[in-house]
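Service request form, structural biology core

Requester: graduate student, group of Dr. S.
Request type: structure prediction, single chain
Budget code: on file
Notes: please return the result as structure tokens.

Sequence provided:
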Amino acid sequence: MLSELAVVWQMENTQRGGLHMCANSRKDGPSIFISYRIADTLPVADRLAAELQRTFGAEAVFFDHRTIEPGEPWDSTLEGAVKGAAVVLVLIGEKWLTEQNDYGRRRLDVKGDWVRREVETTLLHAGSVIPVLVDNASPLPKEALDDLPSIVEVSGLQATPLRTRDWDGDFRALVEKLTGLGLRPLPAGDVSARPSSRPATPGPGFDLGEKQRVLNTDQFPRNKRRFDELKRVCQRGFVIPFVGAGMSKSAGCPEWEEHLLNLCPEAGLDQDAMRQRLEERCDYEGVMHDLVTKLGETRFNLDFERDFKPNDDFAGAIIRLPKLFNCAAITTNFDRVLEMAYERSDKAFVEKTTGRGPVNAFYRALPAGERYLLKLHGSLDNAAERVLNKSDYDDAYGNDGNIHFDRPVPKLLKRLYTSFSFLFLACSLSYDCTIQTFAKIAQHVGADSLPHHYTILGCPSDTAQKDKLEQRLADAHISAIWYPKGEHNHVEELLEFLTY
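Core staff response, request fulfilled:
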């Protein structure tokens, strides 16, 4: 199948004998091309492309089907990119050799298979090929390619590993190999060509005792290690903030549970019974369905925008986000508080999209370091793309109690969750469709193949509730940085410490 990802870096012209000899002395085209199979190594290809872009320049990443404009010739554009590449990284997962097409035929045996064509073209044009063994993949046995003489040479090439669990070390080794071929990383101080998603450089340092106090290390001893790990990932620009309703409280917007319960008297529903359904069964979709049924959709929508219209004057943790994450963000909120926070910092989002809308632009924005906002469940001003009541959730996630990854939102989340680290902020992480989706992704992909995900979360005072929540988080591969229940000021303090 056609490789979806190529890394494009227009290298500066240099004289023969300079640093840019082998790899970037070739003709027009990408310097690095990433070849991979969608069903085999797509999440790793996404992550690798973004890392290489940060290392070698902002123009380094080319996503073929997202970057090639409508009307451009697909085949010739991809073929030209391969021919012009100095290095082709062939990402080999466990299915690279064996994946079959819809007719039961091995893809490599099909002459038009794009992965095969990419390798053939590179070898024919004397480019460098580096096999990259992803996670548990084994080196290619020569006998497996004996019947494909045009690419059998790749089985005899020295491969390099790229394992999710050892990503930092493996990526550094790959960069060293590319540097040895003549590619020159950006100077450490040259941030102008890099996506600006790293935390801003702070002023003076901070008191270690103050950090321990904010992290509550006496009560939550694992907080320090998790926080330090999160900080390192933030500094590499690989964290996407996932913002929940609690971040909008300072702007006068209600939390979702609060909003639903406030509507119960008007709808003639027993508020205590609805609270029990929300807190014990996490039945947000069902309660929402009952409210809309009782009130009627027209009546419900009439005041929906008013109820979530934010105050102009707000403060709190949300104003820290533009300084920390000058790139893409995700929110389940319908309100505009997050957009307003970025606008107030002169970092307005370039574009926003929804989970049920077109998302290709959001994919392109991530490695490019552009400020795009994904409003996962829609926005106030577009009822058609909202995920609000049970029928909306059924359409977005699947309607038989299971998560369907051919549906728009799970498909989108899987792509992002396997490629980037999420930081959940002011999210209840109750067992709704969204957290179920993350748990299913972790179950299908396996913890060893997932990046770490994090949340800053108030700790339940009840031990049994905490144990239950910790298990839910572990199932979704999320590590919690805890703070005492109700002391939400710790969220802002922790975000501030992430900038140091």
